[in-house]
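Example 9 (inverse folding). The structure is encoded as follows.
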């Protein structure tokens, strides 16, 4: 089988694919993950008719996916939630990234409820172009008793 030739008798020109520039920052962004733990601190009980403050501490263990020394993780917010059978008797007020106030209404019956903190974190890989992306971390949950 003969090779195809152009009308002038030359072989056809091969199309050259344009090489795509390799950007380390983009590949780092795909893997940028903050690994750490969070801990809720505060009393394990609240008196009915009062409020208590609970704090969350976030400790970063490592940042996966970025070159060593080129990354940072930052705790930017915390999603606070309560659970259990207390209904509207327990409210979360003054929610901040590092603490929340838990208020228990007067006349609330004895029992328990849960308090959950889920840190919202950003991961930043430094490079030719800095890339910042959100990450999720494991939550911490504690059980708190209501005392009458």
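The amino acid assigned to each position is listed next.
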């Amino acid at each position: 089988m003969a090779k195809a030739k152009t009308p002038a008798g030359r072989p056809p020109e091969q199309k050259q694919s344009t090489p795509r520039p390799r950007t380390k920052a983009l590949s780092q962004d795909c893997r940028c993950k903050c690994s750490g733990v969070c801990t809720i601190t505060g009393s394990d009980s609240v008196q009915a008719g009062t409020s208590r403050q609970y704090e969350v501490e976030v400790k970063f263990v490592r940042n996966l996916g970025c070159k060593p020394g080129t990354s940072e993780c930052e705790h930017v917010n915390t999603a606070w939630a309560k659970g259990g059978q207390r209904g509207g008797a327990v409210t979360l007020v003054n929610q901040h990234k590092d603490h929340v106030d838990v208020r228990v209404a007067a006349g609330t019956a004895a029992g328990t409820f849960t308090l959950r903190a889920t840190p919202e974190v950003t991961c930043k890989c430094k490079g030719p172009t800095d890339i910042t992306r959100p990450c999720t971390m494991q939550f911490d949950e504690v059980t708190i008793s209501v005392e009458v």
